Every structure is written in structure tokens, then in C-alpha cells.
């Protein structure tokens, strides 16, 4: 994302993941927050047979609810080609789905 933004000046960078079972978030990484997020989502969305969406691996219905809690996009202000993230902020892909190992992320920019 940083490399993408250097080609622009001021504006907004949107980070979007076009998948029904993934989202993106802005969190602190490396200090335990990333593991805490995964642990919280696993408790919130247990992998069992309670879901009506029942195709795929056991508990896959939980994966399809994740984007309701972790949005599929974030927008970050950019100034002088640099994302204005806080010191401890990182953009992370959040995906607990074990059925699809490949993911793509789309970046777009609105000048202004």
C-alpha cells in the first residue's frame, strides 16, 4: 500500500478485499493484538454446524459472517504520497477461511 501511495500526492487510498469471507482492519501488530483479534473472532464465530450456509469445510458458514464484523475495506488519508497511519497502526488482511488459500487485494486512490 505504501508503494502504491507514493505514485500519488494527497487524497484517500482505499484498500478492498473482494472476497465473501475476508476483511481488512487497522490494528497494532506484533504486540499480541493480531493474535487477540483472531482469538476473539474464533470465539465470536465458532466453527461448528449451527450455520445455514453449510457448503465447504466444517463450520464454513462462520467464514461468511466475518465481513459483517471486519469490513471488506478501509480508507486511509494520504499526504504527499504517504499514508497517514498512526505510529502503531498497520493494515491487515483478516481471513479465517481455510478453504481458499489465495486472496487478492485491490487498491484505489481518490485525489484531493
UniProtKB/TrEMBL annotation:
<dbReference type="InterPro" id="IPR001602">
    <property type="entry name" value="UPF0047_YjbQ-like"/>
</dbReference>
<comment type="similarity">
    <text>Belongs to the UPF0047 family.</text>
</comment>
<dbReference type="Pfam" id="PF01894">
    <property type="entry name" value="YjbQ"/>
</dbReference>
<dbReference type="InterPro" id="IPR035917">
    <property type="entry name" value="YjbQ-like_sf"/>
</dbReference>
<protein>
    <submittedName>
        <fullName>Secondary thiamine-phosphate synthase enzyme</fullName>
    </submittedName>
</protein>
Amino acid at each position: 500500500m505504501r508503494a502504491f501511495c507514493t505514485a500519488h500526492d494527497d487524497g484517500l487510498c482505499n484498500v478492498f478485499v473482494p472476497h465473501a469471507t475476508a476483511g481488512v482492519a487497522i490494528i497494532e501488530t506484533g504486540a499480541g493484538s493480531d493474535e487477540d483479534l483472531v482469538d476473539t473472532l474464533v470465539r465470536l464465530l465458532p466453527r461448528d454446524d449451527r450455520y445455514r450456509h453449510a457448503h465447504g469445510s466444517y463450520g464454513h458458514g462462520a467464514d461468511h459472517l466475518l465481513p459483517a464484523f471486519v469490513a471488506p475495506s478501509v480508507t486511509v488519508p494520504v499526504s504527499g504520497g504517504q499514508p497517514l497511519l498512526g505510529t502503531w497502526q498497520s493494515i491487515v488482511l483478516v481471513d479465517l477461511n481455510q478453504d481458499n488459500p489465495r486472496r487478492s487485494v485491490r487498491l484505489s486512490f481518490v485525489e484531493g
